[in-house]
Amino acid sequence: MSRSKPLSPHLQVYRPQLTSMLSITHRASGIFLSAGTVVLLYWLMSAASGAARYAAALDLFRCGLTRVFLVGWTWAFFYHLCNGLRHLGWDAGYGFDLKTVYRTGYAVLAASVVLTGLIWACVLSQLGGAA
Amino acid sequence: MSLRSELGRVKGLGSAKQGLGHWRVQRLTAVALVPLALWFVTALMSLIGAPHAAVVAWISQPHITVLMLALVIALFWHLQLGLQTVLEDYVHAPWLQIITQLGVRGFAVLGALAAIVSILKISVGVN
Fold it and tell me: How confident is the model over B16-55, as pLDDT tens digits?
């Protein structure tokens, strides 16, 4: 490409805004969740391979590092879900004015954090807290 | 002036030759995944740390088998469409574009098949 061509201002010129950050996070969470399907497959395939394999899989799910990733996937899931609903609203033609865009944006962030907290509070209470 | 008729133009379905197909299926699978994924995550809560027999008993109920199959089909289809768009936007070298798109499709198809086979195997009870 010729260097003398005028270029439009690049990404780093702009001040980060909530709207653009939420937009790229939607993509990033989608990519991260896609990678997470490997864990879903591992769970299903070990369940299909008998009790011994399933017990081994459960050991892996109990490990601390796995758990950190699972919390990450939980948040990515709720974020992608809530922001996906926001996108479906836009597709239907609603919520385009700036005030609403910001309000729903903050709501998506808050909802994803609250729902992740709720799920993990439920998980930890089932495992007896310390586990 | 174009000599093509309006109908011919519409039937040509644009440069990708599939018109709104990608966009529509992405939304369709998204709408399907809202209840399916929410249901699955909630259902998982009662299966945490559960022994193998309990998980098998849960999945082998016919309505759960059906919902699980619907979930994984919508899920792998949706992720293929989403990753396809991301690759189209950010991967610029044509050869890398083809390789990564094939890789994503391969992963989506194999992943969906592996999930479907596992669910059916559990449900039919070969173990």
Answer: 667 688 899 999 999 999 999 999 999 999 999 899 999 9
Q: Residue A122 phi/psi, 5° resolution? A: -65, -45
CA atoms lying within 13 Å on the CB side of residue B5: 3
Measuring CA to CA, how many Å separate A23 from each of A97, B4, B111?
Answer: 16, 38, 27
pLDDT, tens digit (0-9, with 9 covering 90-100), for B47-65: 998 999 999 999 999 999 9
ipTM of the complex: 0.89
Q: How many degrees, rounded to 5, is the angle at CA A117 between CA A112 and CA A123?
A: 125
> Domains (ranges, CATH) in chain B?
21-124 (1.20.1300.10)
**Who among B31, B86, B118 is closest to A44 (CB)?**
B118
Question: How many other C-beta atoms are found inside a 10 Å radius of the C-beta of residue A83?
Answer: 23
Which of A37, A54, A122 comes nearest B111 by C-beta? A37
Which of chain A's residues have a Cβ under 8 Å away from the Cβ of B84? none
